[in-house]
Amino acid sequence: MNEDKLNKEQLEEDLAFIEKLDIDRLKYEISQELGELSDEAGVLLEEAEKKSAVIPPKIEVRLSQDKLEAYLKVVAHGRPVPITENEIRKCLKENGVIKGILEKGIDEVLVEKIIGQEVAIARGKPPSDGKDGYIKPILGPKKDCLEDCIDARGRVDFKQMRQSNLIEEGEVVAEKVPPAPGKEGYDVTGKKLLPKPVKGVDFNLTPDVGINPENNFQLVALKSGILKKDFTIDEIIFIKGDVDFSTGNIKYQKSLIITGDVKTGFSVSCGENVEIGGCVEDAEVVAEGNVIVKQGFIGADKGLIKGRNVTIGHVKQQKVVASGDIVIGGEVIHGTLQASGFIKMLGVRGIVIGGSLTAEKGIEVINAGNSRNIKTILSVGHNKEISDIEEQIQELKKTSLRVETVLRIFKTAVKVKKLSEGKKLMMGRLLETENRLAGERRKMETRRIESIENLLHEEKPYIKVVQSIFPNTTIHIGHLKKRITTIMRNKRFIYHKNAIFTGA
Predict the structure, then answer these.
(1) Mean pLDDT lowest for which of 58-67, 282-291, 320-329, 398-407?
(2) Helix, strand, coil proportions of the chain in percent (round to 5)?
(3) In contact, 342 and 361? CB cutoff 8 Å
(4) Backbone angles phi, psi at 212, to 5 degrees
(5) How do the domains of the chain map onto residue ranges?
(6) CATH top-level class for 324-381+461-504?
């Protein structure tokens, strides 16, 4: 091992010695010592010189296919010989590389003395594409979301609310954004690279909108109403005051705005959106679109509000049904709320006491229940399909109960007196019916459980209580139930591994 090390050290010394040899000087010294070299000696020395002659390195330049990048490689055929910056620049020019030269790449080749490896030496600039012109809708500072109407003290200010897309004559509804041209680029040969051409856009005018005479880039409404995506405007019926004996029941296929209340016993039916500035009493409000009630929905459990997304100030002893979400700005007292989306109660007064809230996707409240432990139900993971199955199960139970009652009569009669053949046949059929009903109920129960489990895994419903949840409040998630027995604060309830999991 020591001998190998000594040999290696000796070899390194020999190589260093040979590297330092000055052949021209050595030739001169020999000629001085020996006089004129013989022809034979001269030939031998000349051949030795040729073998040790320095061969200049070769510089290779390669361009990428799109000519946005160039690479340089130094190839040495003999012992490495340094190259100069001028040689590099000359070679680049000879290969057509005149733009985007990377000084860092040149320094890397010169300082690092990189041999046989490509180095990025030039980089072009691709063109940056512009943007086509487009029409930008401008619907003004409207607020149809309760989150936007909560003041600094956490209270919901319904006076700020109005229907989404409700516009007035002369209001700007859209603006034309002109095209933004792109920027030129270049490749390493200096060739200009042009960006893609951009396109302008024109307004799609309808009889309901026109060009703003003060600004040709703006579109204004020619009448008041509900603005649609195609820039048509549906007119709105304004009912100034209450829906009562002076107006009768209201039925309209478009949108409605009622500035007052909807009084007990009256109904409002609307094909689109409805906005009510006052209260709804024991009345019925049904809309195909959204419903906004700026004040409350109060009465004796004889009213109904039904719509897509329903927003109400507060609810007391009434029923609200939404195919989308329900948003409440205050309290719900002994109400029945059902939503296919979310139920959200906002602001510091977003409390639910008594009654039931049922939503498919989630429920968010500030407080649930109260210190008097009033029975309150919060239920998620439930939809119309499951409700329909449960209704069918209840109907089967009612039918089974009737069959049971009749069979009990027959069985009592058998103990007292022999039945006629006709009654025996009837009793036999009732027994068969009882068995079939029991089998159908088992099937429906299985379907119900499967539907609930699918919903729980797909929608991941939750119940969130921001502040306090009081005893005698019951949490339902799918087919699972959890009854609250002590006050809990800031809790979130979810379905996890076939159980209701409680977290912060």
Answers:
(1) 398-407
(2) 30, 35, 40
(3) yes
(4) -65, 120
(5) 59-123, 134-227, 235-312, 324-381+461-504, 386-459
(6) mainly beta
